[in-house]
Each structure stands twice: as C-alpha cells, then as structure tokens.
C-alpha cells in the first residue's frame, strides 16, 4: 500500500477552508426560525429497512403508491442525494445514533450471527445527550445493534443503555415474518406473539407511547425503525390488492404498508398537536436486495454494494417554519449527519473527545452546501470484490476493492449511474482521491476497535447473504 500523499490532503484541507465562510453564513441563516418556539423541537427519525431509492412514487416509481411519503415531501424537503452510512443494516443504523462512520464506532458489519461487535457503551448517542437537557426518548421497531447472543442480554448494552427511556424492539427481522410477529421485547420483557403486521404494530406502539406515556410538558425524541420491506415479507391484503395481478404485488404492497405506518406516525403527531414543533426525518438503512422486488431507480448496484444502488436512499425532512415546504435539495447528505443535525438544532456542542464524521444538515435543508472536515466515506464488509470501499468529495467519487489496490473514479453528479469509469483517463485525480481515501481509512482504523474486523478478514459467512 502506498503512503498517503500529504499534498493531496493539503488540497482537501484547502477546499474545506475556502468554504468555511460560505457554510458558516449559510448555517447561521438556516438556524433562524420563522417563528420563535416556546419549547425545544421534538425529533422523530423514521427508518425503512432495505428500501431502494426507486421504491416509491415520491422518487419516480410509476406503480408503487406512497401517499404519505408524497405528503411528507410536499410539506418539507426531498433529498435526491441522501445516503446511508453503509450498504448493510447494522452499520448504517449505528451511524445514525452516533454520527460516526461504522468502522469507527465499532459496528462494522451486520450483527445477525454471533460476533463480538456491538454498539459499545463508550459510544455517545444523541438520545443520551438529549436526555441530559430534559428530553424523553423512545425507540420502537428494529434494533440490530448487538449480535444474537447479546440481544436483551444485560451483560451488553441495550437501548436503555444508549439513552432510550422506553423501547419495544426486535433484534433483527420480524419473526416469523411481518405478519403476527412473536419476537418483540418491551423494556427487556418479551412481548409474545402480536396480531397484525409489523409496520402497523410498530407505528401503533409509537402512537401509544406518544399519547399515553410521554409527558407532554417535555420535548421528545422518538426512533421508528420499521421492518418493511426486509424479507421475509408478509403484506396485508388491503395493500397487496392495490397491485392485483402484478407479479411483484407482495413487495409493492409491502412498501405501501410501510408508507401507511409513516402516515400513522404523522397523524399521531397531528393529533397531539406537535407536528409544527417536530423535525421528522425519513430514510432507509441501505438499498434493496436483488431478486426480492426492490428497485434502485436506475442506480448501479444494490444492498451490500458501495455503488450508488447500495447506499443512495430516500431522504425526506419536515420541520415547519424551518424547512421550506415542497422543496428539493441535491446536496449530498448521509445518515451519519442525523447526530450532528439534532445537536445543532438543540444547541448541544459536538463531543470533543472523538471524531464525529457527520455534519449538520441545516444548510442542506435549504438547498445550500454543507462543510465536511471528513469526506463522505463507505466501507461495506459484504459486497462484490471491486466495490467494498468508496469516498465522495464534491462531485467526485472513488470506488475501491477490498484490498485497496484497484480503484474506479466517477464524476457522480453527471454520471449518477456510474457507467463511465474515469480512473484510466484521469490518473492524477484518481491518485489524489485514492491518497485521501487511504488517509481517512488509516484514521478510522486507528480509532475504531480494529481487532473485531481483522479477526474475520471481512469475509461473510457462507449462506449469510439472505439473513440480514
């Protein structure tokens, strides 16, 4: 491996410095509310599971009905270049809570089997920090931030140890499927079999917490992480019937089932009179699984890939009075940014004792650029060999293989389908990007628990590709 080129890092630093004044000015403007709020804003983060960038009417699908995503987009901003922090589930979710790229926070792989990796107690999550200033916190739905033998095991951190007052969760997928799941745990106690479909059960629990348990005198932060459309899929007949006769009706109905749950949460916010003082952010944890019906909207790759189809996902945000309604933003943002955004809007400083990779999305809410000291970076432990790592700076994206020895280069804004590899045509630009990528990776491995991934050599288990 070649030693990173210091001049490349200097040029990257120079780009950051030149944008500081613009971004600081933009950030200041973006933080000015149109109307003063009497209380701190509430936070709701809604995460779909394995939903592709092209799996909704909101993002151009001509068949799948997603009226609540459409409504959310009409009342806020739609990001056309929103990314998950990884091409698989557990890592991308860990980044949402911590603001740190997955290898840095330790959740470097999906946690479906038996592994040492988990979201460590030493990590700082935004619910922990919000609780310190009087917020109540709730997490409902999927968790997947510890491995199977660690789930609901008091010897390992659980949601309550990461800042959630109340939680009703599953380890990974709803079991045996989305219909009548039997593997939820509420505040450490198994719930038993429930009747209904997972997304609606999760949304109902969120609604119940908001209406019956939450103290209305306090601000709240709530995570709603549904299981749809992750396999094994089960779809309510009322949603599948919308696509009667289509060979993909079960999957398409499953997306609408997920969208219905989003609508239930939005309606609950309205019913409690808190919608106007709530930041609601909707996204997915990664791209779709090939062969199950999901689509990427023309993007290359899929779940487990660091091409766009594996990591570019839906991103919708609504915060009345702060986010212009019915707008579109092509500013690249990533799930890792959720942490810094929440801290920004409640005036909590970022932790100084660790690297925070994400940045505040407040400027991007208004379509303005954000300032990054760490480039957008992805490393996915399970993917085809030639796209296990990627980095984006501005319009340039470099994609590399597992051993960091072969690289592709794309001008992603123009070539969003990644059809034209420019690595051979632009060797100097490729070297510049490669050297920055190697330095970022070196920084991450210095800070993260590298013994966890070095012991496995980043190779997935045989037959594991459909288990997460």
TrEMBL record:
An example Gene Ontology molecular-function term: metal ion binding
Residues in coiled coil: none
Superkingdom of source: Bacteria
Gene3D superfamilies found in the cross-reference section: 3.30.1120.10, Alkaline Phosphatase, subunit A (3.40.720.10)
Keywords on record: Calcium, Hydrolase, Metal-binding, Signal
Location of the Sulfatase N-terminal domain: 41-348
Position of the signal peptide: 1-30
Similarity annotation: Belongs to the sulfatase family.
Protein name: Arylsulfatase A-like enzyme
Species in which this protein is naturally found: Aporhodopirellula rubra
């Amino acid at each position: 491996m070649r030693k990173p080129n210091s001049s490349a890092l200097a040029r990257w630093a120079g780009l950051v410095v030149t944008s500081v004044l613009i971004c600081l000015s933009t950030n200041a403007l973006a933080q000015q509310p149109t109307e003063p709020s009497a209380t701190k804003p509430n936070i709701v983060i809604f995460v779909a599971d394995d939903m592709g960038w092209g799996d909704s009417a909101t993002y151009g699908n001509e068949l799948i009905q997603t009226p609540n995503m459409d409504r959310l987009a009409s009342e806020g901003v739609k990001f056309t270049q929103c990314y998950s922090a990884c091409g698989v589930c557990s890592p991308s979710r860990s980044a949402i809570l911590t603001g740190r790229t997955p290898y840095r926070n330790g959740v470097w792989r999906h946690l479906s089997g038996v592994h040492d990796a988990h979201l460590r107690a030493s990590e700082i999550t935004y619910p922990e920090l919000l609780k310190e200033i009087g917020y109540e916190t709730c997490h409902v739905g999927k968790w997947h931030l510890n491995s199977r033998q660690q789930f609901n095991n008091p010897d390992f951190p659980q949601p309550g140890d990461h800042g959630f007052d109340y939680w009703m969760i599953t380890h990974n997928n709803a079991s045996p499927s989305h219909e009548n799941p039997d593997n939820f745990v509420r505040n450490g106690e198994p719930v038993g079999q429930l009747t209904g479909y997972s997304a609606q059960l999760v949304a109902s629990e969120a609604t119940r917490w908001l209406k019956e348990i939450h103290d209305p005198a306090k601000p709240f932060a709530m995570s709603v992480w549904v299981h749809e459309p992750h396999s094994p899929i089960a779809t309510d007949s009322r949603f599948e019937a919308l696509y009667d006769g289509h060979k993909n009706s079960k999957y398409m109905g499953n997306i609408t089932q997920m969208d219905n749950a989003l609508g239930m949460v939005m309606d609950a916010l309205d019913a409690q009179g808190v919608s106007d003082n709530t930041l609601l952010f909707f996204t997915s944890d990664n791209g779709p699984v090939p062969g199950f019906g999901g689509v990427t909207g023309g993007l290359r790759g899929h779940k487990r890939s660091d091409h766009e189809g594996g990591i570019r996902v839906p991103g919708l945000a609504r915060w009345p009075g702060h986010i212009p309604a019915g707008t579109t933003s092509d500013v690249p943002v990533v799930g890792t940014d959720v942490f810094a955004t929440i801290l920004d809007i409640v005036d909590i400083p970022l932790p100084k004792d660790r690297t925070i990779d994400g940045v505040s999305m407040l400027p991007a809410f208004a379509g303005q650029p954000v300032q990054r000291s760490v480039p957008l970076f992805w490393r996915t432990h399970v993917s085809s060999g030639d796209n296990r790592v990627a980095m984006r700076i501005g319009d340039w994206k470099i994609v590399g293989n597992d051993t960091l020895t072969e690289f592709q280069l794309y001008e992603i804004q123009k070539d969003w389908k990644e059809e034209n590899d420019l690595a051979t045509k632009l060797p100097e630009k490729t070297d510049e990007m490669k050297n920055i990528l190697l330095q970022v990776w070196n920084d991450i491995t210095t800070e993260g628990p590298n013994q966890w991934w070095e012991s496995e050599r980043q190779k997935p288990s045989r037959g594991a590709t459909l288990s997460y």
